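User: quick one, fold this
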Amino acid sequence: MNFPEKRDSDSGRSPSDDEKKAGTEFQAIGHGELPPDPDAGLSADEKAKIDRRLLWKLDLRLIPWLSLLYLISFLDRTNIGNARLLKLEHNLGITGGQYNAALSIFFVSYSLAEPLTNILLKRLRPSIFIPLIMLLWGICMTCMGLVHNFQGLMAARFFLGLAEAGLFPGINYYLSCWYRRDEFGIRAAIFFSAAAVSGSFGGLLAAAIGKMAGVGGKPGWAWIFILEGIATVLIGVASFWLVFDFPDEATFLSPVDRERVIRRLKADQQSSAEHEDFQMSYFWASVKDWKTWLYAVIYMGCVGPLYAFSLFLPTIIGPNGLGFKDTRAQLLSVPPYAAAACLTVLIGYIADRTHKRGICNMSVSILGVIGFAMLLGSKEPAVQYAGTFLGALGIYPCIANTITWASNNTEGVYKRGVTLGFVIGWGNLNGVVSSNIYRSKDKPTYYVGHGVVFSYLVLFLLGGSSLMYVLLRRENANRRAGKLDHLVAGKSEKEVEEMGDVRPNFIYTL
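Assistant:
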């Protein structure tokens, strides 16, 4: 029986015999070689139309669900700040120092596990790894609502950090394997804006769930953990069907579309979609690269303030800070996050269009510096609350922009994964610092906490971004002048391709 030949939905024509064969031969594509062009013979306008449709298809399948996963992740790690306003410390009989220790232990396990998670993601496949860790941290989250003492809270927070460690670096690495360098920033920004949305959503949700106090004999803070943990487990189960693998194996794409995705990446001087066996040389290439460590410093300059802000904003605004009562403090924590989410997406768009990620980092960080200067220098609640707005605006956009900047300038499948693991892992280790700088004895001014965040923004975020910009600009000038061409003398095309971002024709994003 003869069946009608399958046509490609974007170009409206049947694939050639060569294209059918290419759809199953991604592993055979050599370094630096483009797969056969499925749109050969079409006009430039027709190709552009097909490319836009493909990009829209990727966006619809990848971005909304992955953003939801990160929203849940950030909500689960920071909702303890909202629970604190509902008398968590009093019910568990813990001190302010023990509360800070419970915050800190999360970042210890989280940071230690992160550098290896992208290797596991590559080996286990995203469609298995991501849903699996969600199930595990959903269980940990639910158990937090069942604890009765300090020891139980510490254990739950430790394993929560261990389970959540793979999501943020994993998804950033995963998305970088789908999009060109000038397309990745806005998508990473939309994805990360879920963290700011979770802050808004978390405050509203906590205000509502807090009214369940007494149901089942449990306090309101326990119901925050239980209900949000159950929701995480359910979303984790759904993710087995809604998280896809890398471009060469993605089931929602036709073989022709998979060809197109890989051609786009190869044309962008990326090898991210290629099959590559892990070797320790990729690990050491990342460790020996100075950019890995400077990006880690920059990232710590924004993620340290991020955790201080997200964990303690309810405390800063609440009865022991600006003086607002519990429910009102929960609600007043919403607007700064909403503003930060909008600016995060806008900066992602601007950075993609201008290719000036360093300048975007430097410009936005100044807003944060001004905001925390207002918190330090004024005793007026209205001025301090305005400072929280500028603080949020100066912190959140730099998270996604820094990760995108590091990803843009690191080439090679495993090297990029290891680099992002180190950068994000080191940055998140500073959550231990962030967890201990807003001390109960410093209320209501919290000068120590505000001062540490101010220092991080000035020294590490603004200073580190400025230094990286200068060094990369000098490196690009040397490459354009041919001063590094001797590095490829006598090497084959494959050997040059395997050099990744070290090869002289790779120009860094500033």
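User: anything notable?
Assistant: Confidence is low (pLDDT under 50) at residues 1-31.
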